[in-house]
Specification:
Blueprint: H1 6-32, H2 42-77, H3 86-120, H4 128-157
Helix pairs in contact: 1-2, 1-4, 2-3, 3-4
């Protein structure tokens, strides 16, 4: 398969870095904000949680998808390949895990918290499902944010050597 031109690779790199910045930046905000939320009434609580939900759905998700799609292009149409380097494999694991975990757990937890806050106002803070979702979101959201930040560091540092392939190349 034909590789991207040097100019195409520069554009791809720009898009990949931008998408990763959006994903990492939004994940950081979503992770940090819940530790500092001190609403004074139910409308404030709902407004804050609904804003976090909006950020998740309309900023973080496109950033994560953009990162995934540009990574696919990198793997298919450049010399980086899929399995040539251990750090690329680790990045793929983090990316896929992050998207799956965010889609099926983190996103629904924050959406459910928003729904509960809308229905119950400040009483949401004593609702067992809200409390469980809040705790899970804070713990696992922090873990996921740290994981994707780690992916940024390994992208820059490229810490592990190129993989040795015996026999057929899989790259």
């Amino acid at each position: 398969m034909k590789n991207l031109s040097a100019k195409g690779q520069k554009w791809l790199k720009c898009l990949h870095i931008y998408s990763a910045c959006v994903w990492v930046g939004c994940a950081t905000v979503l992770t940090v904000m819940p530790f500092f939320i001190k609403p004074e009434n139910g409308s404030e609580l709902y407004g804050i949680i609904a804003t976090l939900d909006f950020m998740d759905l309309f900023i973080l998700v496109p950033g994560a998808i953009g990162t995934f799609l540009t990574a696919l292009v990198y793997s298919i149409w450049t010399n980086w390949g899929w399995f040539k380097h251990n750090w690329i494999i680790v990045k793929w694991i983090i990316c896929i895990f992050g998207i799956i975990f965010g889609t099926f757990w983190l996103g629904p937890w924050i959406s459910e918290m928003s729904n509960i806050a809308e229905d119950k106002g400040m009483k949401a803070l004593t609702d067992p499902l809200y409390q469980s979702n809040q705790y899970n979101f804070m713990v696992f959201g922090t873990f996921q944010a740290c994981a994707i930040i780690f992916a940024v560091f390994i992208s820059t540092l490229k810490p592990w050597k190129k993989r040795n392939h015996i026999g057929n190349k899989i790259c």
